[in-house]
Design goal:
single chain, 290 residues, mainly beta, 5 helices, 43% strand, globular
C-alpha cells in the first residue's frame, strides 16, 4: 500500500485535470497502480468538495476573454450587484476549466511541493474534504496583515473606511445537500483579527469547551448562496478594478508584484438520499456563521 500514499498530490492534480478535460471521474488511477484502500462511506447528509487556489499576475485573466467562459448569470442580479460594489466577482465553471487555468493546473501534476510556481504564477495543491450538512469549512488567504485597511459599501449605500489589526481574510462556507444530488453552498466573507484569546464555546449536547481564537468581523450583507451540481465549481475572485473588500480578500503581494487570487470550490460527490424532508432541501434562512 505504500505506493498508493507516495503520490497524494499527483492523484489530486490528475483528478482535477481529468475533470478539466471533461471527464467526471475524480479518483481515476493508472492501471499499474490499483488502490488497495477500502472505499470510504459517506453519511447520508455528507458531500465531498475539492478546492484549489490560483494566484496570477493582475491582468492575466483579461487576455483570453476569461469571463466569457464563466457563467455569472446563475447569481441573482441583486446579489451580483451587491458583491461587485464591494469588489467581489463570482461565477460558475462547468465541466471544463477555462484554458488559462487548465494550463496552470497542468504544471502542477507530478510536483511534490504544496505550491507550484510557474513564472510569476502560483497554484496551490488541490485539496479534498468531506463535510456533513451545515458543517462549515474555511478557506483562508495566505496573507496576515499587520493593518488591514479597506473601504466598504454598506447596505444603505454609505461608503465606510475600516482598519483591523493583525487580520486575515477568510471565506467561510456551509454546504446544504439536496434530495436531487445538487448542493446549496452558502458563503460569507469574514476577517479574523486581533490576538487569539480563550473563549467558551458550545460543544456536543449541553457541554461547553474552550478554544483559543481571534475576534471575527462578519459581513452578513455580503453573504451569498449558490446551487451547484456534481462536477460544477464556484469561482471567486475580485473585480478588475480591485477595490474594497474584494481587493483585501483576493489580491496579495509577493516580491513586489501584486497578484490576483482565484478560488474554486468544486462539488465532487453527494449522497443522494430521500431522508431529507422537503423543508430541508435548501439552506435555512437564518444560517449562523462561526
Amino acid at each position: 500500500m505504500q505506493h498508493v500514499h507516495s503520490h497524494p498530490v499527483r492523484w489530486l492534480c490528475i483528478g482535477w485535470l481529468l475533470w478539466a478535460g471533461g471527464c467526471a471521474a475524480w479518483h481515476t488511477r493508472l492501471p499499474e497502480e490499483p488502490s488497495e484502500l477500502p472505499a470510504s462511506k459517506l453519511s447520508a447528509d455528507s458531500v465531498v468538495l475539492e478546492t484549489v487556489t490560483f494566484r496570477l499576475p493582475l491582468g492575466d485573466i483579461k487576455s483570453e476573454d476569461f469571463w466569457q467562459q464563466v457563467d455569472e448569470q446563475r447569481i441573482d442580479t441583486d446579489t451580483r450587484r451587491r458583491l461587485e460594489s464591494n469588489g467581489f466577482r463570482i461565477g460558475i465553471v462547468g465541466s471544463q476549466l477555462p484554458p488559462l487555468l487548465t494550463r496552470h493546473l497542468d504544471a502542477e501534476v507530478g510536483q511534490p511541493p504544496s505550491t507550484v510556481r510557474q513564472g510569476d504564477s502560483f497554484v496551490t495543491t488541490p485539496q479534498t474534504l468531506s463535510r456533513r450538512r451545515g458543517v462549515p469549512f474555511e478557506i483562508a488567504s495566505p496573507e496576515n496583515h499587520e493593518q488591514l485597511q479597506y473601504l466598504r459599501l454598506t447596505a444603505n449605500g454609505s461608503l465606510v473606511g475600516e482598519t483591523l489589526a493583525q487580520a486575515q481574510c477568510l471565506l467561510i462556507a456551509k454546504p446544504f445537500p439536496r434530495n436531487d444530488s445538487d448542493l446549496d453552498l452558502t458563503i460569507e466573507p469574514v476577517v479574523s483579527h486581533g490576538q487569539p484569546r480563550q473563549r467558551f464555546v458550545p460543544g456536543d449536547g449541553a457541554s461547553i469547551r474552550t478554544e483559543n481564537s481571534a475576534d471575527k468581523r462578519h459581513f452578513p450583507e455580503l453573504r451569498w448562496e449558490i446551487r451547484l451540481s456534481p462536477g460544477e465549481s464556484l469561482l471567486m475572485t475580485c473585480t478588475e478594478d480591485t477595490k474594497g473588500l474584494g481587493r483585501a480578500f483576493f489580491t496579495d503581494e509577493t516580491s513586489g508584484q501584486r497578484r490576483q487570487r482565484l478560488v474554486l470550490i468544486r462539488l465532487a460527490q453527494t449522497q443522494r438520499d430521500d431522508l431529507f424532508p422537503l423543508g430541508m432541501t435548501t439552506a435555512p434562512s437564518n444560517t449562523e456563521f462561526p
